[in-house]
UniProtKB/TrEMBL annotation:
It comes from the Archaea. Belongs to the transcriptional regulatory CopG/NikR family. Its cofactor is Ni(2+). Transcriptional regulator. Residues 61-136 form the Transcription factor NikR nickel binding C-terminal domain. CDD domains: RHH_NikR_HicB-like. The keyword Metal-binding applies. This is Putative nickel-responsive regulator. Ni(2+) binds at H83, H94, H96, C102. It comes from Methanocorpusculum petauri. Binds 1 nickel ion per subunit. Pfam families: NikR_C, RHH_1. InterPro entries: Acetolactate_synth/TF_NikR_C, ACT-like_dom_sf, Arc_rbn_hlx_hlx, CopG, CopG/NikR_regulator, Ni_resp_reg_NikR, Ribbon_hlx_hlx, TF_NikR_Ni-bd_C.
């Protein structure tokens, strides 16, 4: 990984609402610039990715997911993914957060790589706001 002293300049495009939320967080957390906030966010993303990559062996856990239930075809696709992974998914809990958003909690058990695969399939869906996999070793 490149050290903080070896800086590279990049350009990114973001939707205005995402940038507005990010700027709000930067202000609340006391960052001196967007760049500082983006560096911190990227470090967190890398740490989470590395942690997710280390999910191995027999695991028990939960996948928490927030999504827009009005997004066309999304609920059907989520259901299909869950049915395709019946051997891994033990139970689900569905809650309506508000008129547009739903929270789903999925209890999973199985090989860590398989659990990660299910979570990543859900993460990739348009209309899904967030997915988090949390596991513990069974042994």
């Amino acid at each position: 990984m490149v050290g903080d002293s070896d800086l590279s300049r990049i350009g990114i495009s973001l939707p205005q609402n995402l940038l507005d939320k990010f700027d709000g967080i930067i202000g609340l957390r006391g960052y001196s610039s967007r760049s500082e906030g983006i560096r911190d966010a990227i470090r967190s993303y890398i740490t989470y990715y590395e942690w997710m990559s280390d999910v191995k062996g027999e695991r028990q856990g939960v996948i928490t997911m927030v999504y827009d239930h009005d997004h066309r075809g999304l609920m059907q696709t989520i259901t299909e993914i869950q049915h395709e992974n019946r051997e891994t998914i033990q139970s689900t809990l569905h809650a309506h957060v508000n008129d547009e958003r739903c929270l789903e909690v999925i209890l999973v058990r199985g090989d860590g790589a398989k659990l990660k695969d299910v979570a990543e399939k859900l993460m990739a869906l348009k209309g899904v706001e967030s997915v988090k996999l949390t596991t513990i070793p069974v042994n």
